[in-house]
Specification:
Number of strands: 11
Helix content: 55-70%
Largest sheet: 5 strands, mixed
Number of helices: 20
Shape: elongated
Strand order of the largest sheet: 5-6-8-7-9
Number of domains: 2
Structural class: alpha/beta
Radius of gyration: 35 Å
Length: 535
């Protein structure tokens, strides 16, 4: 698991929270506009189903392949640019370079720095959140110690306490408790209604889901949606409790409404309530209290049945799945791993006449061309230009019975640009970048008046003859390609000095001209057979 995957999953989680919240808001508004009503209990289950699917899909996304459904918002590269590749190459074991497209241009930062800043921020957030959570749990434990147990109902312990002003319920591993103000015990009807309400919170699972919401607030601390959603869920929890108690005739509506009003008046002066608990009147705002009472007495809207509610839930969960699938590539790691390189080689090897090797040197050059913005652009444009010469080069390859992979050589040499010789002495020219002396050896005219290296057909013919002669001499295409770069005499000398006919051994011992020439050609062959790798 690398930084790009972690960041992509984090953004995916936040995006799913946004889509889930907006979809639910839209759905509820649409139902209300059509004078339909989703029962509070079913709506609460719908919220929990969506949140559960979001958490599940976030974990699952770690193991799913990346899909380019749309342009990623950020990319991780092996180096900031192709010019800085040799000095700042980052393989998959390193964090890499992160680029983000902004309205003012592309910003590239060292992912190590970005990762450290994110790590410090979220570590502090989790430490502070964890500290507050522990303090909250300690406060609940203190309240419990100062309470006396009244009874136990279906595994739920009921406690009375002189310090609390409103009843509440909470769950901890091994504990399922309800705390009732001692003063309420002497008002029998209010006691029964408050107790029924708190027990319903446990039945609905509200006292356990509170920890899920807390975790999401800690993790997605910069996302305002989770705070809005948390508030909405707390409201629905209360509506669901009210609705269940009234519908099941566990309370009488008028008496229950009076109890809510009296408890709310008491709750206005209460101290900060526990974030790990659910309670009868934790939301004491007058407009919410009014809505709770209105819902108990006003049931004119047609309620949607359980089957339709289930269908809605399935539809929204599918929407979350589609969102997760599409957003998997929000942050893409453009670098190539060894496993990916081997998969690409397997595809390339099916049509090859030259053994294609993938090792650490070739992998590095793959990341030069695929893992840098300029490298991708260079190779993408080179492959396009190659199509202009494909027929002519293929004709020469067939004429001399050569491997078709040799078409990759001009990708490295010139990017399939018919370039004139530079003023720098010794540089080559043409598609195949022949130096003047080699061109003359193979019958091309190179003087002040004419340079036949710029004749694509003549130069390609000469290149085939040169590569063919190297292969006939060394009986190995890797050595033939190395000789194309450093000269056949230097290859012969390297073989004699090292005693090895392995081109890769010679390269590692320093027998090179252009640095990493053979690995570059191998990388170009792989990319040529996998053109989508640079899209």
């Amino acid at each position: 698991m690398n930084f790009a995957q972690i960041l992509s999953v984090y953004l995916n989680l936040n995006l799913m929270l946004l889509v889930g919240y907006v979809s639910l808001k839209f759905l509820i508004a649409l139902l209300s506009w059509n004078k339909l009503l989703l029962k509070a209990v079913n709506e609460l289950k719908l919220h929990y189903a969506i949140l559960g699917s979001i958490l599940f899909l976030s974990i699952l996304s770690f193991f799913l392949p990346t899909h380019d459904v749309f342009e990623p918002v950020a990319k991780v590269w092996s180096a900031e640019s192709i010019n800085m590749f040799s000095e700042k190459y980052h393989n998959l074991h390193d964090a890499g370079m992160l680029s983000v497209d902004t309205p003012t241009g592309t910003r590239i930062v060292d992912t190590n720095v970005f990762f450290i800043l994110c790590f410090i921020f979220f570590t502090l957030t989790l430490l502070i959140g964890g500290f507050l959570l522990v303090q909250d749990l300690r406060n609940l434990a203190r309240i419990k110690r100062r309470s006396f147990r009244l009874r136990k109902i279906s595994g739920v312990s009921i406690y009375a306490n002189d310090e609390v002003q409103v009843p509440f319920s909470y769950w901890c591993p091994g504990q399922t408790n309800v705390i009732i103000p001692t003063s309420m015990i002497y008002h029998a009807s209010h006691y029964r209604m408050a107790l029924a309400h708190e027990l319903q919170h446990h039945r609905q699972g509200d006292t356990k889901w509170v920890y899920v919401l807390l975790m999401l607030k800690f993790v997605c601390i910069i996302n305002p949606i989770i705070y809005l959603w948390n508030r909405w869920i707390i409201e629905i929890q209360e509506f669901a409790c009210d609705e269940t108690l009234v519908d099941q005739h566990k309370v009488e509506s008028q008496a229950y409404a009076n109890c809510l009003v009296e408890a709310a008046q008491t709750a206005i002066n209460q101290k900060a309530v526990s974030v790990c608990a659910s309670g009868l009147t934790f939301l004491v705002e007058s407009h919410i209290l009014k809505r709770r009472i209105d819902k108990m007495f006003n049931k004119k809207k047609k309620q949607i049945g359980r089957s339709i509610s289930t269908a809605i839930a399935v539809g929204l969960v599918c929407l979350m799945g589609a969102t997760s699938y599409a957003a998997k590539g929000l942050v893409q790691d453009r670098r190539v791993s060894m496993a990916q390189a081997r998969t690409m080689v397997d595809k390339a090897q099916r049509e090859t006449g030259i053994p294609i090797v993938v090792n650490d040197l070739v992998l590095q050059q793959l990341n030069r061309y695929i893992g840098t913005p300029e490298g991708r652009e260079f190779m993408r444009e080179s492959l396009k230009r190659m199509e202009n010469y494909r027929a002519m080069v293929n004709e020469k390859i067939k004429e001399y019975n050569m491997p078709s992979e040799l078409m990759a050589v001009p990708l490295v040499e010139s990017g399939y640009q018919n370039l004139a010789q530079s003023d720098h002495k010794g540089w080559g020219a043409g598609l195949w970048m022949f130096i003047a002396s080699t061109a003359r050896v193979f019958g091309l005219k190179v003087d002040d008046k004419i340079d036949e290296r710029l004749n694509e057909v003549l130069l390609t013919d000469a290149a085939m003859r040169y590569l063919g002669s190297n292969y006939l001499r060394f009986k190995d295409w890797h050595l033939a390609l190395l000789a194309y770069n450093i000269g056949e005499s230097r290859v012969q000398k390297a073989i004699e000095q090292t005693g090895s006919h392995d081109a890769w051994v010679l390269i590692r011992k320093g027998y090179q001209n252009d640095q990493d020439y053979l690995p570059k050609v191998m990388a170009a062959m792989i990319i040529m057979r996998n053109p989508n790798s640079v899209e």
